[in-house]
Design goal:
Blueprint (H helix, E strand, L loop, with lengths): L19 E4 L4 E4 L2 E2 H7 L2 H10 L5 H12 L6 H12 L4 H12 L13 H26 L13 H10 L5 H14 L6 H11 L4 H12 L7 H14 L4 H10 L17 H17 L3 H17 L5 H11 L7 H22 L25
Antiparallel strand pairs: 1-2, 2-3
Helix pairs in contact: 1-8, 2-16, 4-5, 4-6, 5-6, 5-10, 6-7, 6-16, 7-8, 8-15, 8-16, 9-10, 9-16, 10-16, 11-15, 13-14, 13-15
Bound molecules: acetyl coenzyme *A and oxaloacetate ion.
The site of oxaloacetate ion has 7 residues, from loops.
GO biological process, one term: tricarboxylic acid cycle
Pathway: Carbohydrate metabolism; tricarboxylic acid cycle
Catalytic activity: oxaloacetate + acetyl-CoA + H2O = citrate + CoA + H(+)
Length: about 375
Amino acid sequence: MADEIRKGLEGVLVAESGLSSIDGDAGRLVYRGYTIDDLAAGASYEEVLYLLWHGELPDEADLASFREAMAGAREVDDAVLDTVGALADADEEPMAALRTAVSQLSSTDPDAERDPADREANLRKGRRITAKIPTILAAFERARRGEEPIAPREDLAHAANFLYMLNGEEPDDVLADVFDQALVLHADHGLNASTFSAMVTASTLADLHSAVTSAIGTLGGSLHGGANQDVMEVLKEVDAAEADPVDWVTEALEEGRRIPGFGHRVYNVKDPRAVILGEQSESLGEAAGDRKWYEMSVAIEEYVKDEKGLAPNVDFYSASTYYQMGIPIDLYTPIFAMSRSGGWIAHVLEQYEDNRLIRPRSRYVGPDEREFVPVEDR
Ligand SMILES: CC(=O)SCCNC(=O)CCNC(=O)[C@H](O)C(C)(C)COP(=O)(O)OP(=O)(O)OC[C@H]1O[C@@H](n2cnc3c(N)ncnc32)[C@H](O)[C@@H]1OP(=O)(O)O
Ligand SMILES: O=C([O-])CC(=O)C(=O)O
């Protein structure tokens, strides 16, 4: 067995997957053979979920029954709503609240007792988890504003229904489409850290709720999904100080800090999702008659590219896109989780189908064997 350490598992091949293919040099992302550009332009989030979970795009009848099943699973139990309310009262971070509430969902899932690797049960559980995450998040946001949760509506699509539950009014078509596209763009991305974490959990034959809960915890870090919130905090800080964004970045780089939203383990060029989200950010600014957030972002992108040769990742332009949609900044990462739950579940289904415990090893560099001394003699 090779004894070379691959820190961060960079480049290590650990599984086969039929889900997403990434060309990091060409900046291409493909879900089950369909480019992200085609899917973002033509498919809804529900279609993409179906594609990831079932292998093919649905026809109209399949899509209608899939949508119906998803929409019918949106409501969450009062016990979960009580937890969400208590966490909001305790000023919990939204990602932590989501992690706790998703974990609690297993307590009322009708398939909770089934064999953890039962595919049909997992498809039902996966639909329920994915359908309920928006309800949990919107209820959390409203609770911390001192407002009652708004019940989900079955007649709205997944994306539009979330915005409705969050804001209390139906989004217009533009906002609903931008948000749906963002969900499509974030749905899957190979063996990223949170997906891998879900797979490690599933590989012990733990259940789907545990795998998704592990993944939510992993996504929240600032090197992963947490970066979208950090990006907006930088833009806001620069704006509040009426500073030049390039000066902010120059100083951050001089101090050895990382610029959130830049760099990627897999892409050596601009992330194809950042291209699409950048366009969304620009058109939202255009529509509002205020291109400030987009232009600040572009100035940072150009400078970081020239100085460090680093390109934006998916988190960079999602930040100004969500901001211009009026979404609270600390919901950006939970919204990432709302979408990525689809990918996590798809990878976990693959893992259960051809399972082997995931268990790498580390090289021991601690002390040599030594004599044990009882505590009273130490
Ligand atoms: C959805 C997602 O998860 S996308 C990623 C979201 N995360 C971020 O945006 C946080 C900022 N980015 C980063 O920290 C990194 O680019 C990561 C974590 C995404 C990828 O990390 P890795 O592949 O492990 O690259 P690594 O951390 O080894 O960095 C390589 C070099 O680029 C530099 N670098 C990488 N990203 C950045 C950045 N955003 N700002 C400044 N320097 C950076 C590192 O300092 C390092 O330089 P060095 O070799 O001189 O020490
Ligand atoms: O793939 C990764 O390392 C990070 C990730 O989740 C993404 O870019 O969507």
